[in-house]
Amino acid sequence: MYKLKYNSFLPLGPLRKRKGFSEERFAQSAHLSRSTLRHIEAHNSSIRLGSVAAAASALNLELDVLLCPAECQSDLSTVGVGYQVIHDGSLSWKIHFFNFVDEFRRTLDPRLILLPPSTALELKLRALLASIVWMLCEEVQMDAPSWAQKRYDLPQPWFVSEIESLKASALVESPVYFRQNNIFVLSNFLERA
Hints:
47% helix; 2 domains; mainly alpha
């Protein structure tokens, strides 16, 4: 059975307020009732897709629809952590990506890596997540999904540690999964303390 899961990472209420819309004015511009708008902002799972689309359109937002079995929805999938980083800001990637790494290593669940993160996620973070997925798949001798094997070729090299004295080490140690995307990490990048 498939179920529409309204993405809880979309902070519609704060976005609406930031753009200066009152609840009433926004509901009118989106052609929604105020009650429906309240349900959307409260992340009610029984909202019609058309209502969510109308609210997103009124805010000039792109709507990504993901259909998957209810039992495979996880906030620790590549899609879930991508949305968490979008919601919490790009500097939050370390906690979310490493929570994903831990979950994948714990469960070896291929559904966690099945789909790519949203294109709304910054390019360098999508490339990093793809590199991480490819390396994890290699660890467990699993075929990496095609989206992770794609070359992202960042226009500028990204030294993830951002410590100047470690750049030379990162150039030498960085696994091919990262280097192919112009990303440089130390060999122990995916190790946890």
